[in-house]
Amino acid sequence: MAFRLSFFKTPKHRVFQYNPIYWDPEKEAREERIDPQKKLELKRGSFQKALYASRRHPKGNVDKIRQLVIIVAIAALFIALIYFTKFFEIVMKSIA
Questions:
Q1: What is the C-alpha separation between 96 and 90, in angstroms, rounded?
Q2: Within 13 A of 73's CA, how many CA atoms are on the CB side?
Q3: Is residue 5 helix, strand or coil?
Q4: Cβ 20 vs Cβ 27: under 8 Å
Q5: CA count, 13 A, side-chain hemisphere, 58
Q6: Measured between alpha carbons, how far is 89 from 70 in angstroms, rounded to an integer?
Q7: Confidence of residue 63 (pLDDT cuts 50, 70, 90)
Q8: Distance between CA atoms of 82 and 78, rounded to whole angstroms?
Q9: Distances (CA, A) of 14 to 7, 10, 11, 17, 85
Q10: Does residue 8 sit in helix, strand or coil?
Q11: How open is the CA angle 41-17-20, to the nearest 5 degrees?
């Protein structure tokens, strides 16, 4: 048993209480009977799967295009280096 000496009043814990403005349980039950698929099914990992599925398609195309651009840029760089080395060899021969 602990004895606490305090000069100030300790604050009480804050409690979250949400009181909805209007809620009709009959309407909610009626909508669920009409369209049972409308109710969201929460299963373990369903959010992660949906997130992966939504990102997979558009991002996959962007990644392929990015890889193609990088490959073309590297190929162009090598071609330019080969061209310029031959050009400098010709220039050096003509100077000498």
A1: 10
A2: 6
A3: coil
A4: no
A5: 3
A6: 29
A7: confident
A8: 6
A9: 21, 12, 9, 10, 75
A10: coil
A11: 65
Helix (H), strand (E), coil (C) string for 10-59: CCCCCCCCCCCCCCCHHHHHHHHHHCHHHCCCCCCCHHHHHHHHHHHHHH
Rounded CA-CA distance 42/49 in Å is 12
Query: What's the pTM?
Result: 0.36
Residues 71 and 67: their CA atoms lie apart, in Å, by 6
- What is the token pair recorded at 37? 């698929």
End-to-end C-alpha distance for the chain, whole angstroms: 99
Task: Give the pLDDT confidence score for residue 87 in this predicted structure.
Answer: 79
Q: Which amino acid is at 2?
A: A
Cα separation of 26 and 40, whole Å?
18
Residue 31 neighbours by CB distance under 10 Å: 13
pLDDT category at 75 given cuts 50, 70, 90 is: very high
